[in-house]
Write a structure and sequence with these properties.
The protein has 442 residues and is α/β, with parallel strands linked by helices. The chain folds into 2 domains: 336 residues, ANL, N-terminal domain (Rossmann fold), CATH 3.40.50.12780; 103 residues, ANL, C-terminal domain (GMP Synthetase, Chain A, domain 3, 2-Layer Sandwich), CATH 3.30.300. The strands form 5 sheets. It has a 9-stranded mixed beta sheet, with helices on both faces. A 4-stranded antiparallel beta sheet has the order 10-11-12-15. β8 and β9 form a beta hairpin. Bound molecules: zinc ion. The site of zinc ion (ZN) has 6 residues, from loops. Zinc ion binds next to loops.
Length: 442
């Protein structure tokens, strides 16, 4: 398959996406005042929280006043289950989504007709930024349903005017058959599923039958090393995009064809970085700060200072694409994913970055954490590229030591490496399960 080609830079809505910063900030202040007033008047939960914090809508006069407002957490939204965070009567709600609720009560979000129009526009911006045009045939392999990934992208593709194949997730051989039969040019899914499909395409020997040129990957945190692997093995130009259902869904920020940071749709979402431990604004430490969003235009469920638990940096300087929306780095870690190994903080993305920097390591791995007596043990199962090493013990040993050294350098904690046969770690059809933490069994 041909090498990933950089698409031409196109902007869906230059009037909004390339707005001078001064005008953008004036717009943000105007919208912020309105959203705080609405939250106060229509959602008792917000009024109670603001009253407890001693702040009222008239105290919000500039962007700097934002820090006076209390945070909203996932637990707060869960506590409003199902509809108590809604600011409009149900007759104005046209769509409901919910987070998976794997760790407790689901969080429920709603959209008015205008929210749906905004979301579709933001998805069209995202997809255009990634290089999609109306000539594309777009295969959506994200799950449809309550998860916002599938239907969010679906409406975006229709807004762009490309042809959407609403395949949904799973049935991997069928996915590839559809790519082949329908001539899909764009694939939308999680990066881990993209990697799995690339492997399967290789095994089926159908690479040359496919027309894929772009991959839009989101739904989980991934590294630049994984981007390189996806571009090489899937033959697509790979971009990242970011969002979360509590804030809207995908479309909150997206990479342009420069592949250098994700432009935040700042006319709709006001971003902040805070210190995850203290909540102090402006933090941008080694692992980055925690991203916090206030929605500026959402009607059905306005969100004030939502703590995403995602860590990232803001990138300085202008982007050659012409967009003025501030860029965030790829999410370097989710604070929920942080592992504490013998007192040291370790993020799965650090392990991925270290592994994929080594020639001969396949982009499939699994992390197992256990406890031996009082000590945490970190073991990484690493797949080695097909056909090498397994016949020669000394080469295996050398590879294992090399990976262990690389991990120890990056993580500042020792990890045991086990080399495993290609195809022996689990493959995911949605969000990958990279970490097995056996300490949680009690
Ligand atoms: Zn750009």
């Amino acid at each position: 398959m041909s090498k990933a080609k950089k698409p031409e830079n196109r902007v869906w809505n230059p009037a909004c996406e390339c707005l001078p910063r001064k005008d953008l900030e004036a717009l943000q202040v105007k919208r912020l005042k309105k959203v705080v007033k609405t939250a106060w008047e229509k959602v008792p939960y917000y009024r109670k929280k603001m009253e407890a914090a001693g702040v009222a809508p008239q105290d919000i006069r500039s962007l700097a006043d934002l820090s006076k407002l209390p945070f909203t957490t996932k637990d707060d939204l869960r506590g409003c289950f199902p509809y108590r965070a809604f600011a409009v009567p149900m007759e104005e709600v046209v769509r409901i989504h919910a987070s998976s609720g794997t760790t407790g009560q689901a969080t429920v979000v709603g959209y008015t007709k205008r929210d749906m129009a905004t979301w579709s526009e933001l998805m069209a911006r995202l997809q255009t930024a990634a290089g999609m045009t109306k000539r594309d045939i777009v295969q959506i392999a994200f799950g449809y349903g309550f998860f916002t990934g599938g239907l969010g992208h679906h409406y975006g593709v229709e807004t762009v005017g490309a042809a959407v194949l609403p395949v949904s997730s799973g049935k991997s051989e069928r996915q590839i058959q559809i790519m082949k039969d329908y001539g899909s040019t764009v694939l939308i899914c999680t990066p881990s599923y993209g990697m799995y499909l690339a492997e399967l395409i290789g095994q089926l020997g159908v690479r040359s039958d496919l027309k894929l040129r772009l991959g839009l990957f989101g739904g989980e945190a991934w590294t630049d090393a994984m981007r390189q692997a996806l571009q090489k093995h899937l033959g697509v130009f790979a971009t990242d995009n970011y969002g979360l259902s509590e804030v809207m869904g995908p479309g909150v920020s997206c990479e342009c064809v420069e592949q250098h940071g994700l432009h935040i749709a700042e006319d709709h979402f006001l971003p902040e970085l805070i210190d995850p431990a203290t909540g102090a604004p402006g933090a941008d430490g080694a692992a980055g700060g925690e991203l916090v969003f206030t929605t500026l235009t959402k009607e059905a469920i306005p969100v004030v200072r939502y703590r995403t638990r995602d860590l990232c940096h803001f990138l300085p300087g202008d982007c050659p694409c012409g967009r003025t929306g501030r860029r965030m780095s790829k999410v370097s870690a989710r604070s929920d994913d942080m592992l504490i190994i013998r007192g040291v903080n370790v993020y799965p993305q650090q392990i991925e970055e270290a592994l994929l920097s080594i020639e001969g390591v396949a982009p499939h791995y699994q992390i197992v954490v256990s406890r031996e007596g009082a000590l945490d043990e970190l073991e990484v199962l690493v797949e080695i590229s097909e056909g090498i090493f397994f016949d020669q013990m000394w080469k295996q040993q050398e590879m294992k030591q090399k990976i262990e050294h690389q991990l120890e350098t990056s993580l500042a904690v020792h990890a045991k490496v086990r080399l495993v046969e290609p195809g022996s770690t689990p493959r995911s059809e949605g969000k990958a399960v990279r970490v097995i933490d056996q300490r949680k069994k009690g």
